[in-house]
Amino acid sequence: MPNRKITVIGAGAVGSATAFALALKNIANEIVIVDINEEKARGEALDIHQGTPLYSEPVNVYAGTYASAEGSDIVVITSGVGRKPGQTRLDLVNTNVAILKTIIPQITKVCPDATYVIVANPVDILTYVFCKLSGIPEDRVIGSGTLLDTARLRARIAEYLSISQKNVHAYVFGEHGETSFVPWSIAEISTIGIEDYKEMIRLKNGIMVDLDYDEIDKYMRSSGAKIIKRKGCTNYAISVSVCAICECLFGGVNAVATVATMLHGEYGLDDVCLSLPVLLGNGKVQGRILPRLTEEEHAKLLHSGAALKEIIAQLDI
């Protein structure tokens, strides 16, 4: 493997799980963990590092400073705080925007040629802020967006149909949040439109059940909150999502992922970051796939963009 270096900024639950997943999946052979709490970063890095002799391929995992990130191919930013009781969504936005604004000049100074993957929430807003303030070309700034939502959606559909998740081609568009939506008109099971699956699929055993779109949508939306209520955070699935993005970026051919990027006229949206199917490869955004949407789906996408712009208008950037 050619030398691949990834820096993960933030050693919290998401950052540490991401560094571990990147190492375990052998996506990079050098992984740096940077956190304002240097002792925490050292502890996480040492814990991951001590398992590496048992990995299939060697990987060097260590804690460092921003200077240690020099030469990184990809920088993953997970730093931020979770929403506290009584805190408004806008309060959370302002807090995490302030944190990002302290990170940007320090990391871009040493990694001007890296591709940046924004994971901290609200991810669409922070991706937008990074695009505006960093000076990094927009095709090298990617938010994790609705990739995790899309994975949750596909997992639930696959459960209904008792089929491999890899054969479910459905997506979540828009904001990673309240205004996201599923464009059911383009969802497919293998090559079959999802609305026709009962007529086209024949099982030797069992029956094909009806898809409850409302229940599937609710499952996708509520999964994060349920996990947080039970264990205090979500970290494993999002870390796998980040790995998927990094694998796409290191790939030599374009791969599709629903991630957040800056839009310039797509579907009538401009100067806002939200998720659509994006072609990733060779270290950057290579293009987008713009499927035909129904009028209702198009309206939902515009609504999602408007909701994000309303928050952006209140920021001091």
Describe the structure.
The strands form three sheets. The chain has a six-stranded parallel sheet, with helices on both faces. The model has no long low-confidence stretch (mean pLDDT 93). Helix 1 packs parallel to helix 2 (38-49). It has helices at 13-24, 38-49, 89-110, 123-134, 147-161, 197-200, 213-231, 236-250, 295-312, and strands at 5-9, 30-34, 60-63, 74-77, 115-118, 141-143, 168-169, 188-189, 192-193, 255-264, 270-281, 284-288. Strand 2 (30-34), helix 2 and strand 3 form a beta-alpha-beta unit. The protein has nine helices and twelve strands. 41% of the residues lie in helices and 18% in strands. The chain has 317 residues and is of the alpha/beta class.
Provide tags for this entry:
3-stranded antiparallel beta sheet; 9 helices; alpha/beta; 41% helix; 317 residues
